[in-house]
Amino acid sequence: MLIRIVSVLLILCFGAVFGAMADVSQVRVVGDGAPTRITIWTDAPEEAEAYVSETGSVRRIIFPLRGNAYSAEGLGTGGVTVWSLNPGRLEFELDRPMSVARVLRLPPTGTEKSYRVIVDLDTVSDARFSSIAKRDTRRLAKAESEAAKAAEKQAALLASAGSAKSAGRKAPPRSKGHVVVIDAGHGGKDPGAMAITGGREKDVTLKAALALRDLLEADGRYVVKLTRDTDVYVDHEDRVTMARNWGAELFISLHADAAGSSSVAGASVYTISARGEGRIDREASRNNWVIPIEDGTPERLTGILSDLVKRETKTRSAEFAELLLPELEQAGPVLRNTHRSAGFYVLLAPDVPAVLLELGFLTNSDDAKRLQSEKGRQASVRAIKNAIDAYFDRQDMRLASQ
Ligand SMILES: [Zn+2]
Predict the structure, then answer these.
(1) How far is residue 188 from each of residues 202, 209, 252, 289, measured CA to CA in Å?
(2) DSSP for 119-144?
(3) Strands 7-11 and 17-21
(4) DSSP 8-state secondary structure symbol assigned to residue 23
(5) d(Cα 181, Cα 209) in Å, to the nearest integer?
(6) At what angle do helices 374-400 and 299-331 cross, to 10 degrees?
(7) pLDDT digit string (tens) for 224-279?
(8) What stretch of H or E contains 155?
(9) For residue 254, how far is its CA from the centre of ligand 1 (angstroms)?
(10) By three-state DSSP, how is residue 12 classified?
(11) How much is the pLDDT for 164?
């Protein structure tokens, strides 16, 4: 998941060729207007909607693609004359009135490594086209202003956490309370798992994160930070870097699971696995996550101290996970053998105790309903809050007895 963006050589419709680092890797138009099919290949899930637009005599289909950062163009067929890809937008010019009959979004398969968005266009009457274009102009303006707002907010959030490349971590502002970082999994172009009842993991995790924040802030004992508080995509390394720069004392990543069988249900908690631990040093040096060791410490000691910090971090993570489980059992079903370990990227900070909580299975209808209901959400976040209270009670007691 970390290195999603790769440089690829791309073959376009009618022979155009270009190479780039981008989300859109290929565009193809086939068909005769009844329907005409557009296929867009991307290297990450793309949720953009298609909008119909009419400016004077120029008719277009527009996709706002936030992730895409470069330009290309090509010829079409079956009513599409040309298409052009520019940063933030993919447009198809039409020579006749056409509307979007359906949009299919396909994940990678065994033979097809890319994500695909398939759009079927049907020929419609002039009047029908004009009325759809009017409606879509409003929808597009709204979608673009919401996207801009979300991007702005996220930029401010990143700035407040310091640059992603900044060194060491700041000292936690202990006087104001314990710093808890809540990480709503997925977001933006990455929807996560799909719920059997409809809805997406990214929305479930965001709502849970906001509810947990409200509950913790009402307490006054905590300084709460969110890695995202809108529907926006955030890289995994940025999530960890933000947490470290905020001086996180506890990092909780919220997710919801998916399984092949709809009978699998229940919450589960992950801490870093032995295999994942092997990546900590590599990612720490790559991202400049420096463990703060007092200046002037002899060099031969810094390695030992770093190892102690890493071991302590692991112990604390496990401790929190063990406090969380009995609380989750009060809130709903939990998976058997439910404290698990995995190499999730967001668990790789060398010095921030961290857990990844799968709140339940979106592929199970009881779980999906529970996670999408206000009552179920409140039960989950109250369970997490209770565990956080117990965790910091212990920490404070330890400090007091030193
Ligand atoms: Zn997830």
Answers:
(1) 8, 15, 19, 26
(2) EEEEE--HHHHHHHHHHHHHHHHHHH
(3) antiparallel
(4) S
(5) 10
(6) 140
(7) 999 999 999 999 889 999 999 999 999 999 999 999 899 999 999 999 887 777 78
(8) helix 126-160
(9) 7
(10) coil
(11) 42
User: Can you read off the two tokens belonging to residue 45?
Assistant: 């899930």
Q: How far apart are CA 322 and CA 326, in angstroms?
A: 8
Structure tokens at 129: 């086209």
High-pLDDT (> 90) share of the chain, %: 49
Ligand 1 centroid, distance to 369 Cα (angstroms): 17
What span, in angstroms and rounded, lies between the C-alpha atoms of 50 and 33? 17
Cα of 263 to ligand 1 centre, how many Å?
Answer: 19
Two structure tokens written together for 201: 């993991």
pTM for the whole thing? 0.62
In this prediction, residues 121-143 reach a mean pLDDT of 91
14-52 tens-digit pLDDT: 222 222 233 677 888 988 888 899 998 887 777 778 899
List of E strands, 95-191: 98-106, 115-123, 178-184
Distance 360 CA to ligand 1 centre (A): 10
Cα 241 from Cα 231, distance rounded (Å): 19
C-alpha of residue 192 to centroid of ligand 1, in Å: 5
- Cα of 389 to ligand 1 centre, how many Å? 25
CA dihedral of residues 371, 372, 377, 379 (deg, nearest 10): -60
Radius of gyration over alpha carbons of the chain, in Å? 24
